[in-house]
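Bit of a strange request maybe. I'm writing a small parser for structure token strings and I need a real example to test against, not something I typed by hand. Could someone generate the tokens for this chain?
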Amino acid sequence: MKPILFNTEMVRAILDDRKSVTRRVVKPGHLRVLDSQYHKEHPEVPDKTLLEKLCLPPYQPGDTLWVRETWNGDWCDHYIYKADGGSAKAAGYAAEPKWRPSIHMPREAARLFLRVKEVSVEKLREISALSAMDEGVTDWNDFVRLWNTTIKSADLPLYGWDANPWVWVIEFERISKDKALGGGMDD
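Reply from user aminoacidic:
Good idea to test on real output. This should exercise your parser:
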């Protein structure tokens, strides 16, 4: 089982069954295969084919992923999640929780589990309108905005929408915690 990070907006999309695909930048080290001697000797081999055959994607079909999201574990002896919205004060508590970053979420706090169905590689701007919707957004421009907000501003020239980087396209389905941990059927 492997962790995967999602921002609050995308966690909401998963919870609403609007998100079934995510894109992750191909690591720079993997792109070296495009400059390899093999590729120079075989220029007829498309870059996409070379990346898919020679680079290990971050996830494989069949992998189970647990979602790391913004959370808090010091609240009434149970975990709470920023994606659920709401207000602790409105619910009668004295203060709002101090949210903890998703990167620090332990697996035992996870409530969302995904099963990888398919992994492929493409240039970011090859995304279709339908695939953008599968990313959990309402339209094309929303995907461009979302993508650029997930990239550090200093890295936008390398990985932003305008840079059109190579990305892993990871299709997944949501599964129950019980199934993720080897138990019974999905909810």
